[in-house]
Amino acid sequence: MMHMEYEHLLIFGGVCVGTWLLFIYLWPSFIIRVYKRAILVKGFGEGPVPINTLYTESQKLFADPVTLQSASGSNSVTAGMNRDTLYVVGWLDLRKGPLVLHVPDMNGRYYSVQFTDPSKNINFVYVGTRTTGTKAGDYLVTGPNWKRAVPQGMSQISSPNNAVLVIGRVFVENDGDLSTAYELAKQIQLTPLDR
User: Fold this and answer.
1) Nearest-CA neighbor of 163 among 13, 29, 24?
2) How much is the pLDDT for 63?
3) H/E element holding 129?
4) What pLDDT is attached to residue 78?
5) Which of 36, 58, 60, 137 is the most exposed place for a label (fewest CB within 10 A)?
6) What is the pLDDT of residue 2?
7) Which residues contact 180 (CB under 8 A, 6 or more apart)?
8) Closest CA to 52 of 159, 165, 157, 185
């Protein structure tokens, strides 16, 4: 009789461990799917963000994130509570060809543009103050099979996947700096290479 009790306990323990490992394995891809849907369908609560474009968090949302998010019924992709950072987000599909990321001269201001491979949830490159400096620049974002020469004056960002999550951040020093930071964030742009 004692042996049967331990057998059930071992089976229950095995099922618990298996379920936990499955949860740990699947959780990141689930979160990335939720994030993609939030960007492409809801954006920042002001409507969808089309693929291969970047959307900048509005000044209103930055100024009053709690009221505006709850009023729109949106669970926005922005952290919302971070009171010194404007967000720029987008979802890229590089199967149709490379995109050019343009960043303006930030004149010493902190900013970063993070590129994430959603299949592995790995940040594979950053453009920004700590990695590329604050001068204006153009970066060619290419998929894993792109083999052509990089146009002169551009640096290549080679993605390991054709799907890319982009999250940009621009520092806002204080309320009086919001409009300047917003104008700079709006200048972080993506365009197809052939344009």
Assistant:
1) 29
2) 66
3) none
4) 45
5) 60
6) 53
7) none
8) 165
| pLDDT mean by block of 10 residues, the chain; 195 residues | 66 78 73 71 73 86 56 46 82 94 97 92 93 96 93 95 94 90 95 86
Residue 85 vs residues 112, 154, 170: alpha-carbon distances, Å: 10, 27, 5
Q: Please provide residue 81's backbone torsions phi and psi, each rounded to the nearest 5 degrees.
A: -90, -10
CA distance 51 to 194: 17
Q: What is the C-alpha end-to-end distance of the chain, expressed in Å?
A: 77
For residue 45, what pLDDT is reported?
Answer: 65
- Tell me the C-alpha distance between 184 and 186, whole Å: 5
**Pairwise CA distance, residues 17 & 119, whole Å:** 24
- CATH annotation of 40-192: 2.60.40.1610
Beta bridge partners of 157: 141
Q: Provide the token pair at 141.
A: 């974002």
Look up residue 154 and give its two tokens.
């551009």
